[in-house]
Amino acid sequence: MTKKITRRDAVRIFGAVAGTSLLNSALGFKAIAAETAKGATDSSFPWPYTKLDSDQIAERAYKGYYEGHCMYGAFEAIVGAVADKKGGEPFKSFPYKMMKYGAGGVGDWASLCGALNGAAAAIALFVAEPKPLIDELFGWYEKEPLPNYKPKNPKFDIQTSVAASVLCHQSVTNWCKKAGKKAFSPERSERCAWITASVAKFTTEILNHHFAGTFKAAYPIPADVAKCRGCHDKGGSIENTRGKMGCTSCHPNTDKTHKEL
Amino acid sequence: MTKKITRRDAVRIFGAVAGTSLLNSALGFKAIAAETAKGATDSSFPWPYTKLDSDQIAERAYKGYYEGHCMYGAFEAIVGAVADKKGGEPFKSFPYKMMKYGAGGVGDWASLCGALNGAAAAIALFVAEPKPLIDELFGWYEKEPLPNYKPKNPKFDIQTSVAASVLCHQSVTNWCKKAGKKAFSPERSERCAWITASVAKFTTEILNHHFAGTFKAAYPIPADVAKCRGCHDKGGSIENTRGKMGCTSCHPNTDKTHKEL
């Protein structure tokens, strides 16, 4: 299972992270060095990123949605585009089709939005410490009226809505109510294709910024969620939960519940 | 990007699926043939599975949790064990560490349970039509008192609880309430390590059954969820949602809400 890293590999990998901020370069190199010592299978992890055109990625994700749904669409657009630029292994052997499992919030369970699941996986493939970028992506998704990318050749015109959650269920239902369309209508599919494109575009932008050393988070945890977390999350007096998802979409009667206690 | 399949490859791949049911063999071979024609990058998808010992996988997942958290633990235990038996590519190049992103319901957002996210990905890597197996796994997870696997050398003794949801948030919070432990306590980490082991074990069992042609679903959609879906899901009069998650953990006042309408 050991894979030797040659001098040429080291130069290639180091070159790929050379455009990142000093911190990320250091993290990347540290990860590579640690893996080499361990002789792990994924010895060049994280994989090298290259700057992408976010509009091109959005179009690819829109097309990808109709080939393999939301998770596949977002993941393949980003990682497949890097693969096209880099060529060869390890990109060539990656089982992109595996990512179809995230469709409809994983196997149609309507849990995590598949576009977010795929985009988070793509971020984690390229970034040693992916959490700040995932926080930014998920925070943006909960708050912004989406989709905010219109593909060049759309099937329908699509209304925006605010998901107020990272879950497929709320995201879809809030849109259905706003647009007056059914959950299994072709318009809803088109809306999720636009969402996939929008998520892939935003993810590409934050990846580009991250590797250019210009990433700045603009979507912190909202004040109402931070208030709940004050008691319920890490270090709080109750500390009986974790997470950063919006609270009130599932707990709308929070004030009432608190008064009853 | 084209990868030719040699006669030897075809024999190897066909041999790997030969132990499956007739349907799965047919599906697998059809997928391979289709990919060859298209010249896609992941030309031997889905990847070949081999029967695993579910207790060994549970132990590996328990250990993996402490190396890379829940999603990595479940995925690496199953796919890594197949990789150890098969050796070489494409397993060798797979970026297992990418799966760390699912920790704490993806980047600590407490959305989909990471053990389920990783196990679903593993199922989708080996099974062309993964939904029935994902349905079984997710249905089991919502209903059963878990964890139901105790590792050989546990750090603590762990109480069981019923998640009633596939989401990290409910799963963790329900356990915290039952066990009287905090969400960031070492006992909660140990509980999630046992959960990762339990999920990996159950997933291995259903994969083994699937490829032996003996898989039978035992966790259909519960009656209360089916009742809600009757109006709200595909083909229903309202059809404003999708999904199979338990409804009442987020909508406890369903009867009241319906009366008010």
> Structural class, from secondary structure content of chain A?
mainly alpha
Q: Which pair of chains has the greatest number of interface residues, and how are they split between the two chains?
A: A-B, 66 and 66 residues
Mean pLDDT of chain A: 85
Cα separation of the termini of chain A: 57 Å
Low-confidence stretches of chain A: 1-40
Helix content of chain A: 40-55%
Total DSSP helices of chain A: 9
Set out the fold topology.
The structure is a homodimer of 261-residue chains.
Chain A: H1 7-17, H2 22-38, H3 54-86, H4 114-126, H5 131-143, H6 168-179, H7 186-212, H8 223-232, H9 254-260
Helix pairs in contact in A: 3-4, 3-7, 4-5, 4-7, 5-7
Any overview of this molecule?
Two copies of one chain form a homodimer. Chain A is built from nine helices and no strands. With 261 residues, the first copy, chain A, is mainly α. The longest helix of chain A is centred in the first third of the chain and has 33 residues. Chain A is globular and about 55 Å long. The N terminus of chain A is likely disordered. At the A-B interface, helix 4, helix 5 and helix 6 of A face helix 4, helix 5 and helix 6 of B.
